[in-house]
Amino acid sequence: MSERVLMEGSAAMAESAVRAGCRFYAGYPITPSTEILEYMSVRLPQVGGTCMNAESEIEAIGMVWGAAGCGVRSMIASTGQGISLMQESFAELANAQIPVVAVNMCRGQGDYFQATRGGGHGDYRFIVLAPASAQEAVDLAQLAFHLADKWRNPVMIMGDFLLSHTSEIVDFRPPAFPELPPKSWAITGADGRRGITLSPLGPAEKLSTDIAAALSAATAKHGGIKGEETRAETGHLDDAELVVVAFGFPGRFAKYAVRLARERGLRVGFVRPISLWPFPSEVIAAAAARARAVAVFELNAGQMVEDVELAVRGRAPVHAIGGISHDHSGFGVGPLLNVELILQRIEEAYGTA
Amino acid sequence: MTDVPASFEKVFEPPDLLLRAEHSLCPGCGEPVALRMMLELIRELGLRERTICVAGIGCYTAFPMIMDVDVMQALHGRAPSVATGVKRVRPDAFVFTMQGDGDMVSEGLQEVIHAAARGEKFTAIVFNNAVFGETGGHMTAATVLGQHTKTTVGGRDRERHGSPIKICELVAQLEGAAYVARAAAHTPSAIKLAQQYLHDAFRAQLDGKGFSLVEILTMCPTDWFVTPDQGPAFLEKHLVPTYPLGVIKQ
């Protein structure tokens, strides 16, 4: 049964998480992610869950570690600054193969590298999903919990101030995911079996010392994730001479600017990566092979443009047409979020301006 | 195994929850003594099936692989927040943390304080040997004044290095702390007392009274730069004056 309501992006995503079975949340207030904490503090107790207003980001991610390690679907949210503080735990959660969902309602899009490369140590990857609307945030929150459990890997949802604070109509349509195997790795107490260890340092089996095998298992799945979980929205690529690449909420502005360019007779198409890792390199490479140029619009000094260049591999020139964009608040809503301005930059990249 | 003469009576055996009756720690180390006490008590109270241990990072990080209970390995300093998440989603589990002084008092001090203040219903156990043992003998926040380490050559000096933190006294003043005691592993009588304190701390958790903390002073002859047999006397002479044994709050 579908259910359409008007909600702020933050609350909608939190509600979707609860409907996905999230029963533990820990967070530390920080704009623009605070509304998720506020929502969870009211909502989770209604369904028998727990919301912790932690004393620090480091303790918040520790609490989420403990709950998720017990097999309970668990979530944390912050903004880039708070996410920075969690990086040690993020790296080791991936090594311990503990499925958590981490939301980064970042300020601007300057946290692209942080999300896709991670600021922690060692060999690890987060699956990173970037919704462009409250509805997509609802859908991707459901998907995030599914993917986290499916791959036993943390999943990050990368949003921003606008996504967090814009109210839109959302439909809580229940997803149809295949059933997942039971969490035999979860820490439950050793009832009827030998004890197990859930650790980023080594294997689950007692007395085993095969650390390399345990760490290899945590990274061997990366190829499978790339093969199965790459997602992107595309438009007008068949005859596109210029391919515009943009992600997240600003991706909606870019998509609209591409539509206006089409109305002016310009052969412009777009790719909006929905998964930032794995990155939709193949679809971008294919589009670039048919185009004269590629233009990347992002609200930072130039981060995703490097992934686009890696995908394009010289098939076409790649132009960075975004930039750092902030108003006095510092929350990433600045003058560049202007369709006329984006259209002008598209025209420049197209060669008609 | 050599054959045991029939006239011999078995008076001692390792706890059955110890999967391998040996460990990789140094001769004279006090931490295996504490491990034995914990495992025996878990068996005695019938808690094995619902026990979840959250382990910190130190020499004792070798223990999770030889303990036949479920263990979640936490990062350095982070066991109390991880144990909070565990206990909140599994309130029927018996949850205890295992940290060293470097883990609890240096790296993760705010974690134990916040968990105690919240009255989290798990038992925190800290092995205090007043030194970073695993790194090879460096000062922790619990190193006592005058103690020689590789970073306090000539002894810990109040002016230069500050004074040690007494974690039990710090935690005991918090409302959420239900039981706080300090024990040691250096003599038979101290061990007997330590067993009692651990028992009472476990009971405080099982009775839902709040946060419980047991500090166990442990020998580290390697990083005290003495021989294994000198460890217990060193502990008595240098640690106990700063860290008096006894129940601090119940």
Mind explaining what this structure looks like?
- The complex is a heterodimer of chains A (353) and B (250).
- In chain A, 41% of the residues lie in helices and 18% in strands.
- Chain A is an alpha/beta fold and 353 residues long.
- Chain A has two domains: 4-179 and 220-228, 3-Layer(aba) Sandwich (Rossmann fold); 233-350, Rossmann fold (3-Layer(aba) Sandwich), CATH 3.40.50.920.
- Chain A has a seven-stranded mixed β-sheet with strand order 3-2-4-5-7-6-13, with helices on both faces. A five-stranded mixed β-sheet of chain A has the order 10-12-11-14-15, sandwiched between helices. In chain A, strands 1-8 form a two-stranded antiparallel sheet.
- In chain A, β2, α2 and β3 form a beta-alpha-beta unit.
- In chain A, α1 packs parallel to α2 (34-46), α11 packs across α14 (339-350) and α12 (281-290) crosses α13 (304-312).
- Chain A is globular and about 70 Å long.
- The termini of chain A are far apart.
- The relative contact order of chain A is 0.12.
- Chain B is of the alpha/beta class and 250 residues long.
- Chain B has a single domain (31-249), classed as Thiamin diphosphate (ThDP)-binding fold, Pyr/PP domains (Rossmann fold, 3-Layer(aba) Sandwich), CATH 3.40.50.970.
- Chain B has helices spanning 31-44, 79-89, 101-107, 109-117, 158-161, 167-172, 188-206, 221-224, 231-239; strands spanning 51-55, 70-73, 94-100, 123-128, 177-184, 211-217, 246-249.
- Chain B has a seven-stranded mixed β-sheet with strand order 2-1-3-4-6-5-7, with helices on both faces.
- The longest helix of chain B is centred in the C-terminal third of the chain and has 19 residues, at 188-206.
- Chain B starts with 30 loop residues before the first helix and ends with a strand.
- The chains are: A alpha/beta (353), B alpha/beta (250).
- β9 (197-198) of chain A pairs parallel with β2 of chain B, so a sheet runs across the interface.
